[in-house]
Amino acid sequence: MSPLATKRLSNAAALSDAELLLAIAEGELGPLGILFDRYHEPLRQFLLRAAPNVADVDDLVQETFLTATRAAASFDGRASALPFLMGIATQLLRRRKRTFVRLRALYDAFCAAPTASRQSPEEHVNQAQEEALLQAAIARLSDERRIVLVMVEYNGMSGPEVAQILGTPVGTVWRRLHEARAELRRTLQRGGR
Q1: Spatial contact of 59 and 65, defined as CB atoms under 8 Å apart
Q2: Which keywords does the record carry (predicted)?
Q3: What is d(CA 129, CA 68) in angstroms, rounded to the nearest whole number?
Q4: 3-state secondary structure of 21
Q5: CA distance 22 to 35
């Protein structure tokens, strides 16, 4: 640990929120405990009112502080870190809600799916062949294109979500998706070759 880091930790309780987050951004985790002590209760109270499921609140508080360690460099230097932490918590709430809505839709679709197939054996074979062609065509895509296609088309993710996961600009995600769809279309028009 550097002498500056040792000095910071020795009087960390007297540091401002901006100084604590700067130290966290530089890789020091000691100041995170002080930030947690300052703001976990106000953040918890906010989440108790904002979260649809009270059982998730403590997990969300922990997740907020963990996310704050990765986002510390983006702190704007305000006097209080509470708005910064509440913003992170709000994003986490929205992400959980989107995930829940998506899972609920999948569950509802699964429950509504007919249990017995009304297809003739010939139709069933044709469908299986088409699915095999599609899977083979998807497998031939480059990793970059295939991953974006699967995340958007099969997992129902938005472009910004995929961009955040992959660490790429949103425009790059849309370009890769467009290229993947065009390549699939060409491959399937040639009969999978």
Answers
A1: no
A2: Sigma factor, Transcription, Transcription regulation
A3: 48
A4: helix
A5: 12
**75-125 residue pLDDT tens:** 988 888 998 999 999 999 888 888 888 888 877 777 776 655 577 888 878
Q: How far is CA 89 from CA 5, 8, 28, 31, in A?
A: 28, 27, 22, 19
Amino acid at 120: S
Q: Is residue 38 part of a domain?
A: yes
Find, among 8, 81, 76, the residue nearest to 39 by Cα. Answer: 81
- Mapped onto helix, strand or coil, the DSSP state of residue 179 is helix
The whole domain housing 28 covers 11-105
Q: Is 111 helix (H, G, I), strand (E, B) or coil?
A: helix
Per-residue pLDDT tens for 45-64? 999 888 878 888 999 999 99
Domain C-terminal end among 81, 105, 129: 105
Instruction: Specify the 3-state DSSP secondary structure of 193.
Output: coil
CATH code of 41's domain: 1.10.1740.10
State the pLDDT at residue 167: 87
Is 127 found in the same domain as 81?
Answer: no
Q: How many domains is the chain partitioned into structurally?
A: 2
